[in-house]
Here is the input.
Amino acid sequence: MAVYLCHEQPDLHQHEADVVDAAPGRVVLDRSAFHPGGGGQVSDNGWLDHSGGTVAVTGIEVIDGVVWHVLADPAIELAGAVVVRVDHARRSRVAQLHTDSHVLNALVYDRFPGTLVTGAQINDDGTGRMDFDLTEIDNELLRGLDAGVNDVISSGVEVRSVYVEAADATTVTGLVRSLSVAPPPTPDGRLRIIDVAGIDRQACGGTHLSNTGQSRPFRITKVESKGKRNRRIRFALDE
Ligand SMILES: [Zn+2]
Here is the structure.
């Protein structure tokens, strides 16, 4: 997991950058606040202002470690200086749901110790899902967990990101509990930990709020059994 500019400066939504590589419809920048997505989270979208106008960034593709910004105009070829603008509303929706999903994960883990996450997806439309390795659990019990998530939202709990040595992290129970979404360490062997104070500590490379109170209310919309050992919890931000 690389250390992204959006990790170091989560409130940076607009900045200048230089095009360092380009092909029709795509560019590599010397710096970019766009989150590339991953671990079940969609990438940031937004815009690049260039000498000839503005073009939308519709996605990010990481190829051999190089971050390509995919542009809405497949023929455009950019060079020189640009202004990067992150779609703040989209970033915010994803960060709200992503932070809420950490709280949900903690509540499930508390109630059913040792439960592993087998998959997660955070969409840009204010919906998402988490899959848990759970058997013999009443789906209605899971469905009621959104009340607990909303308690944490209304309590306004601080959310911090810290780095720990990856070698140390494996000795802390529950810190890396995902089967499929745990991020790899940084090149220098550290793990980024998202700490929802007193509630959840989890290795994660996504975008989050700095306080749970910044989230709109959270609603579990559906609980499905997906196979013998898999429960899928679907959720959404309330309007
Ligand atoms: Zn996360």
Summary: The pocket of zinc ion is lined by residues 98, 102, 194, 204, 206, 208 (CB under 6 Å).
